[in-house]
Write a structure and sequence with these properties.
seven-stranded parallel sheet; 263 residues; 10 helices; Rossmann fold
Length: 263
Amino acid sequence: MALRDKTVLLTGASGGIGSALCDALVATGTRVIAVGRNEPALAALAQRHEAGRVTPLAADLSSAEGRTRVIDLARRLSPSPSVVILAHAQSAFGLFEDQSPARLEQLFDTNLVAPVLLIHDLLPILKQHERATVAAIGSTFGSLAFPGFSAYSASKFGLRGLMEGLSREYADTGLRFQYLAPRATRTAFNSEAVNSLNRAMKVAQDEPAAVAAQLISAIEQERPRMQLGWPEKLFARLNGAFPSLIDRNLKAQLSLIRRHARP
């Protein structure tokens, strides 16, 4: 799918990867509806592009009111969005027993429930187009659950399952559903504790602009799934085929992970 001249609905646009995605989309010639919770950041994002290219919309997608604002705008647009990129997410690093029920509920409302309900409400709009795409920006942890990220991994596993199921459910239509998973990326999404763990484990981190370029390419190629980075791509495949190998490797790292995950 060529993105030029398309209307793209982008969530998480005020975040690190989301902001880079917005810039990359505008460079391809699209009109972007930039959704996020940080209103000043969205305004700054719109101001650095030609007038009319980026329409900022402040909305909390974990709330019914926020999702309604997005749907109402999408219905009013002409042309309406034919590409939806779900790049919003809430982070959660820490041992599972240390996380409060309220924090866990907010995590799943943001990372999984909001995408489910938003896609459901957008389907009538998307089906008006001969071809349309929904791309969910996931995580390596959506294929490889990691200690210290148990709840976050579960939310991303659920998102991956949603996109895979929808991809198969609409395989004989013009609708495409994609799950695209970056590895660690150098953004403010990562807390200092996460950055410290990444340094200790020598985890490579990509720059947001480089990640955005790969994601845009995958969307244009209509790839149903993609894991970015090496050896993360290998580890994700090994976890699917031989999970006990990953079990043993991560067990050996538990003391290090716990040291960084404790508040």
